[in-house]
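Slide 14.
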Amino acid sequence: MRRTVALCALLVAVLSQAGCSVLEPDYPSGDPARLTQRLTDRAQWAYDAMELPPHKAVNPSHVTPGYDCNAGGFTIDEMAPDVVTYGLRWTVEDVPADVARATEARLRRQFTAAGWSLTHDGNRRVGDHVEFGFRFEDPETGDKFDLAWNNSTTSLFLSGYTPCARVPRSEADTPSPRTWTPRAA
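Slide 15: predicted structure.
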């Protein structure tokens, strides 16, 4: 028994020291320009489907790399330095509940019709606090979009994210120069 424990401990130590790739997630390579273009195209697609009534201008949203991608293996708490997910987020303020609810329903239909999967349903009421929204994921690319609204802020939030991808280190450390502002339909 002691030999087995010692052998296992030695194996763990050797694999950890060697940076064993068998234990690390195999992130696909990604072209930052293509990932950010796909993300901004989909943000516009979602914005168009929302069919919002006239509202204040949406501030430009920067497409930013995030480090939500674990290195894996025995280094679960570490982030892989050349693996990122790109994201953007924008807000429309002062949206009444009935408009937000109708907008949410239209966008749900859009994602569902396009074959996206509902992965989170955020509708709930606690006392006087009401919030609703969702997260949909594209099964082909792994892209995710979240919609959220609550009666405290009366703001409608839309966020989009690409899945983790391995990119050149210089690109991972540099925010994208891309910004996105919805074009009126």
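Speaker note: Helices lie at 2-18, 32-50, 97-113, 169-172.
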